[in-house]
Specification:
Jelly Rolls, 2 helices, alpha+beta, 13 strands, 13% helix, 31% strand, seven-stranded antiparallel β-sheet, single chain, four-stranded antiparallel β-sheet, 206 residues
């Protein structure tokens, strides 16, 4: 395990091959109920280079109007599937937060050209809650900055089975994915990478 003293923790190889395969099968089942969707960015309408879906009582979505959370899938109109117990167990075991997540955003990077520009997760009310990040499949070249967009960044590989926790100050750090090392993993049947992020969206009642 590595930690940067700002609340960021990286746990390489935290998930063994069997557990990774279980998670991939779990995502496939979730996607049957809530299909992956290619969102577009507000105002410009430019599509993302990755596909997304969610589990939980809240799902992160994007369209020409805004980035926001919604209790229903933007295409099917149905509620998102529940967050599976396997993910809740990881959250409870690896974060010190006393309340369960309400969203698991699942990003599917399908190959060359798939990336995520530098951003920070700030659409949640509960910004004091950590974010737990799970990587499956091809290695990503991950970029981590600071609380301001202009802060210096560093990049490093994140391989399949790695979990990262963004807590404390790092919860509001800018981050992104520059590219994939395409073909570096055979975990996903069609290649690519899955990234799951568990988030608390609303502030718990006092």
């Amino acid at each position: 395990m590595s930690s940067d003293g700002e609340g960021f923790r990286m746990l390489p190889d935290h998930l063994d091959r069997t557990r990774q395969q279980e998670l991939v099968a779990m995502v496939a089942a979730l996607a049957q109920e809530a299909p992956f969707t290619r969102y577009v960015m507000p105002r410009t309408g430019r599509p993302f280079s990755i596909d997304m879906t969610n589990a939980g009582s809240q799902g992160w979505i994007a369209d020409r109007q805004s980035y926001r959370y919604s209790p229903v899938h933007p295409v099917t109109g149905r509620p998102w599937p529940a967050i599976p117990a396997l993910l809740l167990d990881l959250w409870r075991g690896l974060t010190a937060y006393p309340h369960d997540p309400e969203c698991c955003l699942i990003n599917h990077y399908r190959g060359e050209g798939a990336k995520l520009s530098l951003h920070r997760d700030e659409d949640e009310e509960a910004t004091e809650a950590p974010i737990l990040n799970i990587s499956l499949g091809d290695t990503a070249i991950f970029r981590l900055g600071g609380p301001r967009r202009e802060d210096k960044t560093r990049s490093f590989p994140v391989a399949s089975g790695t979990i990262m926790v963004f807590a404390g100050p790092s919860r509001m750090f800018y981050h992104g994915v520059d590219r994939l090392r395409v073909g570096s993993s055979r975990l996903l049947p069609d290649g690519g990478r899955l990234n799951l992020t568990l988030r608390r969206v609303t502030r718990p009642a006092a």
